[in-house]
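Weekly puzzle thread! Below is a chain. First person to post its structure in C-alpha cell form gets bragging rights.
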Amino acid sequence: MKKNYFLSLLVAIIFSGLSFSQDLIITGIIDGPLPSGYPKGIELYAKNAIADLSIYGLESTTNGAAAAGVEYTFPADAIAAGTFIYISTTGGSAGFLQYLGVTPQYEDGVVNINGDDTVILYKNAVIEDSIGVIGEDGTGKDWDHLDGWAYRKDGKGPIATFDSSEWTFSGANALDGCDKADDTGTNAECSSIFPIGTYKSVASTAPELTIISPKEEELSARTSVDVEFSVSNFNVAAANAGDGYVKYNIDNGASVDLFDTNTFSIPVTPGQAYNLNMELVDNSGNSLSPAVFKNVNFSIAYPCDLNLGAITTTCITSTSATDTYDISIAFTGGNTSTYILATDNGTIGGDNPSTNATGTILISGVTEGTNVVFTVQGDGANSSCDLTRNISSPTCAAFPVVDEFNYTVGANLADQTPWTKVNTGDDMLIAAGNLDFTGLKASTGNKITFDGGGSESYISFADVTSGTVYASFLLKVTDISAMTDVADGGYIASLAGSTSGYDARFWVRPNPDASGTTFDIGFGPESSNPPFTSGTYNVNDVLFVVMAYNKDNNIVSTWINPDASSFEGTIPTATLSSTDTSAPSSINLFILRQDSDGETPFVEIDALRISDNWADVTPKDATASVKNNTIKGFATYPNPVTSDNVTITSNSAENKQVVIFNVLGKKVVSTNFTGTKSDINVANLASGIYILKVTEGTKTATSKLIIK
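Winning reply:
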C-alpha cells in the first residue's frame, strides 16, 4: 500500500504552523515581600523567534473583574528563541534586580497586581495565555499566590483557558518576611524562592522528587509533622508493580520504605531540629542512576503556654493637669517557663508569670498621654513566647471639660490641645468673636467655624460606663444654601465610644429646602433618617444645644434652647430622645464632624462643656436677671426706654461692645463705640424686656432693659 505523502505533508505543515504560532508563554509571576510589594514581575519565555514583539500585549484584572482588552503593548523588538522576558511594575526594576538578580527588559503598571489577581497574554488582541481565572477573585483559590509566586511546569502552555494543574504555586504568604534580616532586599534567607529562568519548553522525562512540606523553616510547637511530597516520571508502587519506591530517614537514621505518594506523619519534639532525607529507588532498593535525592532541614519551636488576657487602664488621678495611670494585664498559662517582661514606660509589678499559673501583671506610674509597649519573651530554653501589646493611654481629665476656644484666630482646631484630628480634608478653624445665649454664662475666648466636607476633630474624656454624660455648646447655622441632602442633611456633632461609632448624632437638615432660611434638627444613634424636631429654626439664630447619653439605659437625648429656669437646676423634658440598640461599652469622645459639601451647613460653635451632670453644662449667668456692673461709671438711661435711643455711659473711653438679647436668647442688636458716651438706636425693637450686655476690655456690665 502506498503511503499518502501529501496527507502526511499537510499534517506536518499544520502541526508546524500550530507550533510556531505559540511563540510566547507566561512562565512565572511574583508578588514580592519588599516595601511596596517589590519585586512585582512577570516572566515570559520565547519558545520560538519573534520578529515583532508588538503583536503581544498584557492585561491584568483585579478583584474578579472581567477581561477588557490589552493594557500594555510590548515594543516592536525582535526576540530570539529561548529568551526569557521580564516585565516589572513601574519603577520596580531596581527591586527586581536586587531580589532576583535579573534586570527586567520592560516596566509597566500592568504588573502592579497581587497574587490573587489575573494576568492575560494577548496575541493580535486575542487571548493567548493566562494565569488565574478571568472574572474570578483568586483569594483562597488553589491558584492564590498573594505575597508569593507561581511558576509554569516544564512543557506546559500557552493556553487561553487557565489550568492550575500546569502551574506550581508557592501558596499565599509564602514570601512574607522573606528578605534578608539586614533589609538589603535579597532572598538569601528565603526557603521559598521564585525559580526564575528555569522553565523548559520540553517537559523532562527524568524521574523527579519534590518535598512540598515541611519547608526549611522553624515550625510552631507540635508533636508531629505531616510530610507531603510529589513524584514525576516515576511510578511508585510495591512488589515490582512500578518503577520502584521511596525511601526516607530522619537524621540519617533507619530508612522507611514508602510504596505510594500519600502524605505521612513523623513524630517530633518541640525544641529539636530535624533533617528529612528522601530518595527514589528501584524495585531492588538501589539508588537510581543518576540518584534522585532530596532533603530538608526544619526545626520545631518550643511552645508558648502563656496567654495574655484583658488589659485595663486606670487613672490614678483625674485633674485638668497631666495625670498618671496604671495598667493591669490578666494572664493564664504561667509557671511553665521563665518569662522576661519589659515595658518602655512605667514600672512592672504584680504577679510574676514565671512563678504564677494565673494572675495579673501591673504596670504603674505611667504618665497620661504616653502610650506603652509591653513585651513578654520566653527564655528560649523551653518557651518560644514573643508577645507584644501596644497599650493606649486613657484620658484622665476630670469633669467638667470646658473649652472656650481661646486659641489663635485662623488656627486649626485639630492642632490645639486637647483636640485630635480624624480623616483628611478641610480643617475646622478658630474664628474671632463669641456666641451668647440669654441666661447662660457669658462666653469668652473665641469660637470655631466649619462647613461642607473635611476632617473631623474630637476631644476625649474618661470612660463613662454608667450614669449620664452631657455635652453642651452654642450653635449658629449661618448658611444652608449649599446643602443638597434635604432628606437627612448631615450630622455635625456626636457623643461616641470610638472615632467610628458616632453613637449619639446631632443632625441639621434644610426645611423645607436649601433655598430657604429655616432648618430642623435631628438626633439619635441612627446613621440615617433620625428623629427630627417638629418645629424649625432660623439661620443666624444662636441655639443652645445640650446632648446626653445615659449609659444606664442607653437613651440618647438632646435639648434645643432649654428654658433658662432649668439652668443648674431641674432637667427639663428633652426635645428628642431615643434608645441606642447597639450601645458601646463606654462613652469617651465628643466629635465635631464635617460630612460632605452637600450635607454639612456653614456653622459656628462656641462654649463647649462636657460633664456627668446637668448643672456643669448649663452654667447660669449670675447677672442675667439683675443689674451687674464691673465697668466704672456704667449707666443706661432712660430705662424703661420711651424713645428711639438708649444712652450708655462709662468713665473710660476704651472701645465697648454692646449686645442686646431678647428673652429667647436671640441677639437683636450688636454694635460698638469708643468713648465715654453713646446713644444706641433701639427703634426697631418691639416693646418688651431685653438683656443689655456691654463689654469693655476684660470688664462686663449686664442689666435688664425695658422697651416701652
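Puzzle host: Confirmed. Bonus trivia for everyone else. Residues 477 and 539 are 5 Å apart (CA to CA).
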